[in-house]
Amino acid sequence: MTIRFGMVGCGMISNFHARAIADAPDASLTGCFSRDTDKTRAFAEQHGCRTFSSLDEMIADPEVDAITICSPSGAHLEPALAAAAAGKHVIVEKPLEITTERCDQIIRATESAGVKLGVTFQSRFHESARLMKRAVEDGRFGKVTLGDAYVKWFRSQEYYDSGAWRGTWKLDGGGALMNQAIHSVDLLLWLMGPVAEVHARTATLTHERIEVEDVAVANLLFQNGALGVIEATTTAFPGCLKRIEISGSAGTAILEEEDLKQWQFAEESAEDEAIRQRMTDRTKTGGGAGDPAAIGHHGHTELFNEFTAAIREDRVPSIDGTEGRRSVELIEAIYRSARTGQSVRLTPQ
Fold first, then answer.
1. For residue range 74-91, what is the model confidence (pLDDT) as tens digits?
2. pTM for this one?
3. The CATH number, out of the four listed (3.40.50.150, 3.30.360.10, 3.90.700.10, 3.20.20.70), of the domain defined by the range 125-290+328-345
4. Which of 39, 70, 185, 250 is 20 to 30 A distant from 19 in Cα terms?
């Protein structure tokens, strides 16, 4: 059973979705639509698919089973609602939307329509991240004490000037946190569990003509009692690979993009040395640290494989709307803390 996709939005990230669909054995790309007809035509020629003149035309086509939404972050809601109403499954590029209220509208619409909803957090499919997840679940860290995420990236002024929507609250939904660091925020929550309380500061220190932050620091209290830090920026030249660090009374693991830089536990297992060897030099790209296009699409391929399997098996995708909402909720709380100067408590999960 091949799931036939329509692409909404033909910007940079849509090319990675298209390559992933091409590599996924049970997926195919029927066509694309964006408001920029030149981009739509060029994308269709590059990826060998049809063009649609409108979203309505796309979602009415019987040769489209699902759509993947790659429009600006604050323009995910409308195509998702329309697709759900038309009975189409939906994958949404991160973030699911720019507020939890808008996320909830998408979640409710897809649930009511009985269609699948997935969110593009492809880093969860990297083997190194899954090894960390298994170590947490197996209790190998002992009492987990610290969980940190560091995203010290660089984006030039030209990057923000390249699109009128970039760096705006309305369509970007935020800056270094909501746009760039959200993959790491998602990973941290996936590994560490929910956050109970946050205290944060944000600033716009070097970029001009943007409304949002280019630096953010948040102190976290997790529900499990551990503490943590999120540091995110788009003004750390030349840009460093993102890092997740987890420490506990019996172990420490440090994930840098796809490499495990540290993997040490008080009780060594038979496979630990092999893991240390295998998880070295896994990162083959710039990880988006200095160039947003310097990423691979292999994680996206695994995400599309899992999503199409969820459709075939009629089950919930592993990264559904509820999972995709978690990072948006935390980032909203960080922004609220930064605005008020007060700690913000999150709803227990």
1. 999 999 999 999 999 999
2. 0.97
3. 3.30.360.10
4. 185
